[in-house]
Structure formats: structure tokens, C-alpha cells
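hey can u check if this looks right to u? its 144 residues, i copy pasted from the old doc so theres a chance i mangled smth
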Amino acid sequence: MRKIQQRAAKRAAASVATGVMFYLMISNPRSLRTLPVTHAVMIQFNENATAWAIEDACNWMFSLQDSCRHPYSGRPYVSSIACGKDSSPERPEDGPTYVVVAEFETDGEKDYFIHKDPAHLEALREIEPLIEKATVLDYSSGLI
């Protein structure tokens, strides 16, 4: 009899926890997001950007994975960064030619990276004069 009561109590607790999580997701869907967040920037460099300057910009972006540090823990928080030149035969003639893709564990880390991280902001200040146009897309795989 006691085991039946214990199982019933566990089911009730699980049901309440599920209800609370569902309510939180509906009231603020971003509050419980645990999926990794991808920040992709498609870049069209301007005509004054030399091959050397573009290579330097990509190397700087790569280095952000180690130089961007969490403001409280001091640990690197960028899960990965990739940078590369477009090689698709489907690319329009006047579209972006490079892409930078950074992955983060949370929206909060991505937001800190974009708006506050000193290493990222410094890189942007240096690279911005080379950029003609940039398109940004943030997403979590599986979220619709």
C-alpha cells in the first residue's frame, strides 16, 4: 500500500511540475529555451576590402571563440565559430560572399556577445569599414 501511495505522490508531483513548465513556456517561451542558439552573419565585403584584409577579418572572428569570456565566470562561452567563403553555385551575383556562424548555449550568451562583449565589439569596430552589407539570422534548430 505504501509503494502505491509513493508512486501516486511522484505522479502528482511530476504532473504539477509539467503544468508549471507549460505555463512558463506559454508566458515566456524564451525563458526555458535549452536548445543551442546559432548566430549567422552573411557578409558582402565592399570593393575596397583586400584579400589580406578579408583573411585578417576571418582570423579575428575565429579568435573570438577564445577571447570572448563570460562576464561572471571568466570562461569562454562561445561554443563554436566558423567563417568561410561562399562556394555555392546558387549564389546570386550581388549577394553575400562570406558567412560567420557562432553557436551559443543560451540566448543570454548570444545577446551578451552581440551587445556587450568587449572583444566582439572591438572586432566589429575594426571590421565594419570593410563591410558593404551584412544580413543576420539567429535561430535554434528545431524551433518553429
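The chain is about 45% helix and 25% strand.
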